Amino acid sequence: xxxxxxxxxxxxxxxxxxxxxxxxxxxxxxxxxxxxxxxxxxxxxxxxxxxxxxxxxxxxxxxxxxxxxxxxxxxxxxxxxxxxxxxxxxxxxxxxxxxxxxxxxxxxxxxxxxxxxxxxxxxxxxxxxxxxxxxxxxxxxxxxxxxxxxxxxxxxxxxxxxxxxxxxxxxxxxxxxxxxxxxxxxxxxxxxxxxxxxxxxxxxxxxxxxxxxxxxxxxxxxxxxxxxxxxxxxxxxxxxxxxxxxxxxxxxxxxxxxxxxxxxxxxxxxxxxxxxxxxxxxxxxxxxxxxxxxxxxxxxxxxxxxxxxxxx
Length: 312
Hints:
The protein is of the alpha+beta class. The protein is about 20% helix and about 35% strand. The longest helix is centred in the first third of the chain and has 12 residues, at about 30-40.
């Protein structure tokens, strides 16, 4: 008699796919929020679109169920933050959670000098990832090495600051508004600013206000998500995939839906004048998301990602 594999998970019940934006509270890791969302939504298929440090707050977009397949197609990866830089104190983590390494003796720079120094960071600059980060060295996250007292050489990487503006100056605190490319560390900006000014600095607090196409207006506090889950309304907060992707939309009938779900291509119809390489969201007659397809040189739409009929 065949023995049942105790590790095999039961198939999940079907449910809607989409994106849930959480206003992450301080003290929770991004993975903590993902685990909570799995409970709220009753599915294991939840992934985030970019981590936030545990002490940071703000926009944390989550992909739910089959929407996890669409993360690579979300092309707008820009981020925006409101942060507080504290002048005169350096820490080992580059933020307020770390051990103090040095304190500046003497007067701190005035606002004009701070603004002039920050202006030099606008545009393309190189950053060295901090030791306390999820970046890996030989397969090991840097933060694990840092907690063992190890420091290793890290390759600098190019990042882009579209905006770095002082919004409040009450020395030693400097509030800044930052718009930047994905993969940018505002902690590193704070530390680099401190070095440029000769007084040292660290990041006192951080709130993400935008992540790609998602902003604070889309975000729900974690407590509200938990309450919505209890009342059975949490799935009403899912943003449909086609609204997030913002691709041209094609609606198809039953025959074309079946063809698509079996890997077939589709005629482009009124979309044939689009530039080859254009990606298109395909919906069924009821407005349910079916697939991302791409217009090829033969003017046919070829599937890139398809939501299947098995509960995707």
